[in-house]
Amino acid sequence: MKILVCISKTPDTTARIAFTDNNTQFDENGVQWIINPYDEWYSLVRAIELKEKDPTTIIHLITVGGPDCDPVIRKALALGGDEAIRVNAPAKDSYYVAAQIAEIARQEKYDIIFTGKEAIDFNGSAIGGMVAELTDTPYISLATKFELTGNTALISREIEGGEEIDEVSIPVVVSCQKGMAEQRIPNMRGIMAARTKPLKVVEPTAIDALTSILSFELPPAKAGVKLVSPDNVAELVRLLHEEAKAI
User: Fold this and answer.
1) 14-23 confidence digits (pLDDT tens)
2) Which CATH number fits domain 2-219: 1.10.10.10, 3.40.50.620, 3.40.50.720, 2.60.200.40?
């Protein structure tokens, strides 16, 4: 069985957010980059668990980006991936990234493609569905459990007010969220092995992005706290009616 895990490089959640070039570019100065948590903690770890049950399983990792993505993809290899593929192009938009991944997926014919439910920087939650459409593969989103018996997968996913259980034959594309697996930390053996694992760099397919970023904007600063005397109930009521609604 062959599994492809999509890996995205994202800023650490504590990173300072700022923009340059008239608010059209993210300012990367001083930013600590990490594996997108949904890709690392849930997609990749669940793939590793499947490999532990069936050692013949092969896990490939894929990312779209420049050489600055290599440390992140090496960490993913240290966790348990067998081989990595980096499409040597900037991640222009969701369609562009999905199309590059789909091109590799069609060539390699994977049984399972795992993505995180979203990347924590853009929160688009679009890659999985686009990859599935471009490869003409069934798609299950927001999965919390994934069990495989032969060629049949039993997948649980959250829905409004409950849980849905789907049965699907592989190949399948699945986006993963909390509940799919538990976070792991690379051990020294994995870190050392990752240095020699293949990281193949391929040039992108000629595909045009469908969207472009016009500008970024930071959310408004939080207003200061207003203290109201316990004896001044009328003022508290006024503030709740006139100001609290706008927050």
Assistant:
1) 888 888 888 8
2) 3.40.50.620
